[in-house]
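User: I'm putting together a small comparison set for a docking exercise, and I want a reference complex before I start. The sequence is below, and the ligand is protoporphyrin IX containing FE. Could you produce the 3D structure with the ligand included, as structure tokens?
Assistant: Of course. I'll restate your input first, then give the structure tokens for the complex.
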Amino acid sequence: MPPTRRSAPVKSGWPVITGLLLLGFLPVLGGVVRLNELSAGAAVGQPFALSVASVAHIVSMSVFCLVGAFQFSPALRMRHGWHQNAGRVLIPVGFVAAIASVPLGVFFTGTPDERAAAIVRVVFAAAMIVFLVRAVVAIQRRAFATHGAEMTRAYAIAVSGGTQALVAIVWTIVGGELDPASETGVVAVGFVINSLVAEVIVRRRARRG
Ligand code: HEM
């Protein structure tokens, strides 16, 4: 009898999930600190709508980064229902996270020299919204590979806060304390690194078919 061919076991993806959770950890921690400040009255004098946007942005971006990490597990994608059900929650959450950051950046209440970093964030929030829209259109057309590519790009932007923290550490070691101009550089470099990594992953997946 000819030997039967065994299919390769589906990967759990735990190393990737763990890396993504670690990357999301620092910005989420920063978000928790800010939520604490807001509940202690840090936003007094600021328009109420901005405080609402701030809370919506922090909570939804944190959920998107943490729960979204599990969407990259091949094993969970094979398990019927998990990926689809989580996705139905995560896509609206991602939209709220990105859209809420626009008023925060446009009506920025920080110091004028921090405005440039806020503008960079708004530009990448706009890109995240575009990628999410394209991911939704792709899934409606059952174009699964395109959907995966667009979600990878959106997620890479969302977890850029972790990369920015790492870049800030390196920048501080090499160039000393950060000023607002170098902080803007750190924010931009973090977004660019993550977007490039996402592009490499997307292209590698496309080559493998
Ligand atoms: C887990 C991820 C993230 C967390 C926890 C987080 C948290 C925060 C916090 C605490 C603020 C300050 C809000 C305030 O002043 O009340 C903020 C501001 C802002 N965030 Fe995020 N954020 C995350 C990711 C992102 C991403 C990926 C983008 C853009 C693509 C973004 C765009 C913005 C913008 C435009 C502002 C307002 C301008 C500024 O403070 O520089 N955030 N975020």
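The chain is about 80% helix and 0% strand. The chain has a mean pLDDT of 93.
User: Thanks, that's exactly what I needed.
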